[in-house]
UniProtKB/TrEMBL annotation:
Key words of the record: Cytoplasm
PANTHER family, per the entry: MALIGNANT T-CELL-AMPLIFIED SEQUENCE 1, MCT-1 PROTEIN
Organism the protein comes from: Trematosphaeria pertusa
Annotated compartments: Cytoplasm
InterPro entries documented for this protein: MCT-1/Tma20, Pre-PUA, PUA, PUA-like_sf, Uncharacterised_CHP00451
Name assigned to this protein: Translation machinery-associated protein 20
Function as written in the Swiss-Prot or TrEMBL entry: Involved in translation.
GO BP annotations listed: formation of translation preinitiation complex
Length: 190
């Protein structure tokens, strides 16, 4: 979605009523953010909306990017927010071989998640349950981590459910929404 450099459009202040609605939508979509919502989106602070190309809206607090949304799709967290609160989002892990494809903006394929280095919910090798126990449905916003790396490298939307991925082990798994080094990551809001 953000493969090339992007230039921000108009910056507008979000009305307080709309800001409350966004806050509610964030908590409904990402319930694990509830203890941190005052740090992320304080009630007394002004939320800004920046229009980006291809009908993408970026919500920021000052110069800090928080969430973005393509038209009426789901609110997706910016990687800067994911890096601050990594345990608050549904996560999957790709193997080392898939890293270069993800960082070039390619659609994530199922073998990158089902191979030895990949992790899906309910994986027997994930003893502490870092990647969850329940299977995820198509359309779920997920954070993609990479084998051997500390921070997440991509935020995307599942094209197939994780139960189906485990069974079929091929096909498209996740559509790239935002990844390290893309135009949204490099966007200068200062």
């Amino acid at each position: 979605m953000f493969k090339k450099d992007i230039t921000p459009g108009a910056k507008t202040k979000v009305k307080s009523s709309a800001q409350r609605g966004i806050r509610t939508k964030i908590l409904d979509t990402y319930p694990l953010l509830t203890p941190y919502i005052e740090d992320i989106l304080p009630k007394k602070e002004q939320l800004d909306l920046i229009k980006l190309p291809d009908r993408v809206s970026l919500y920021t607090l000052g110069t800090t990017p928080l969430f973005f949304q393509h038209m009426d799709d789901a609110l997706m967290p910016h990687l800067a927010l994911v890096h601050r609160y990594p345990g608050c989002f549904a996560r999957l892990r790709i193997d080392r071989g898939a890293i270069r494809f993800v960082l070039s903006g390619a659609t994530l394929m199922t073998p990158g998640l089902t191979s030895a280095g990949g992790r899906l919910p309910g994986d027997p090798e994930d003893a502490e349950g870092r990647y969850g126990r329940e299977d995820l449905e198509p359309g779920t916003v997920v954070v993609i981590e990479a084998e051997g790396k500390e921070n997440a490298c991509m935020v995307g939307v599942l094209k197939a459910g994780t139960a189906e991925m485990k069974k079929v082990k091929k096909g498209q798994a996740c559509e790239a929404g935002h990844y390290l080094g893309d135009g949204l990551w490099a966007l200068n809001l200062g």
